[in-house]
Design a protein that fits this description.
The protein has one domain: Deoxyribonuclease I, Chain A (4-Layer Sandwich), CATH 3.60.10.10. It is built from seven helices and 14 strands. It has helices at residues 43-49, 68-71, 78-88, 174-195, 215-220, 231-236, 252-255, and strands at residues 8-11, 15-19, 24-29, 92-95, 111-114, 117-126, 145-155, 158-168, 199-204, 249-251, 261-263, 284-289, 295-301, 318-323. The radius of gyration is 19 Å and the shape is globular. The two termini are 17 Å apart. The structure holds 2-acetamido-2-deoxy-beta-D-glucopyranose (5 copies). Residues 273, 275-276 line the site of one 2-acetamido-2-deoxy-beta-D-glucopyranose.
Length: 324
Amino acid sequence: MFTELSNAVILLQILAIAVHSAAAMRIVTYNLRFDSQPDNITVQESLNSLLDPLQQPAFLTLTKEDYHSEWGFQEALVRQVNDLAELFGPEWSWIGVGRDDGVAAGEFSPIFFKNDVKLISKDFFWLSNTPFEPSKFPGAGSIRICTAAFFSTSVGGTQKNFTLLNTHLDDQSDAQRRLGASMLLVRARFEAVRTGTPVFITGDFNSPSTGPDSGAYNIITGAAPPVAINATFADKYAVKPDQLPDFKMLDLRGQAPRRNVSANFATFTGFSAPNDTSSWARIDFMFGGNNKGWTAEGQKAATSLSDDGVLASDHRPVFTDVSI
Ligand SMILES: *[C@@H]1O[C@H](CO)[C@@H](O)[C@H](O)[C@H]1NC(C)=O
Ligand SMILES: *[C@@H]1O[C@H](CO)[C@@H](O)[C@H](O)[C@H]1NC(C)=O
Ligand SMILES: *[C@@H]1O[C@H](CO)[C@@H](O)[C@H](O)[C@H]1NC(C)=O
Ligand SMILES: *[C@@H]1O[C@H](CO)[C@@H](O)[C@H](O)[C@H]1NC(C)=O
Ligand SMILES: *[C@@H]1O[C@H](CO)[C@@H](O)[C@H](O)[C@H]1NC(C)=O
């Protein structure tokens, strides 16, 4: 199913989109490993330190925390974003800002995209009570941001547009997650009405689709009512009551044909040993608006564990193929 692609978008926390045939795109979301031990070496120095690719590693021997630059990705600090941009190369572009100052401080939720997808517009907003300035929701563990982008691509000579919202909800505050989901739903419906084209949301929700912490998932999928959000934001992205009144987001894992949903269920595994499943959960999601204009072709949660025992992240990358 996941065959060679001719074109693509990557988003981060990480997310990627790739256009591969007449009308298909690959979107990837990946919460990178946090860069807790920055070593300030170049991408080339990192590549130079890698094992000879023809040499067998010592299987499952490495368990210590390692330097990002030596092998992996994680929650994207500016250094990682710059490294990724270098590794993706000139055929790719990216957008994003650091969530702490709206410039470069703190984690990014960037979107990387291949250049045959053209960026039409972008903006950033905070999932807080003051969405248009860097700000933290009361009780949240961190400042939380959303990267919003409107793209255009050409499919068999026909222009196709779509919106993508990439985000990372709070790990501590369920109230923040419910607020964030409510804001994302308002913004997604606005874009669906404004553009009449597909809307996708990707992100680490830091909460599963079932159980006591499933408020954000239930709100975004229309199974629970949204909570009150900042009035300035609500006014800016208001639509008329009769415009897509039943708008909600559909979980692309459930939309894809079953035979094309492969590999793993959990998207978070923690940094535990391979036999310890106690923290495993599906918390990284990709949604499509029910105004449609897309078809989900397949989804795959891959692995972050390599043969030598290194975990590239405490999350797994999630790949979704969609046609637009
Ligand atoms: C499964 O994925 C492949 C490749 O993306 C696609 O061509 C095919 O139509 C999908 N299968 C179904 C049943 O949709
Ligand atoms: C990282 O390395 C660059 C180039 O050697 C140097 O200019 C910069 O000061 C270093 N930054 C830190 C935080 O050590
Ligand atoms: C809503 O957000 C705007 C922009 O961030 C802010 O100026 C305003 O004070 C907020 N409203 C309330 C009631 O907090
Ligand atoms: C795509 O967006 C551009 C810029 O807003 C607009 O001019 C164009 O008509 C749109 N095309 C479609 C097919 O929606
Ligand atoms: C995983 O394997 C290790 C080593 O055999 C063992 O000590 C540990 O108890 C196991 N953990 C679980 C959760 O089974």
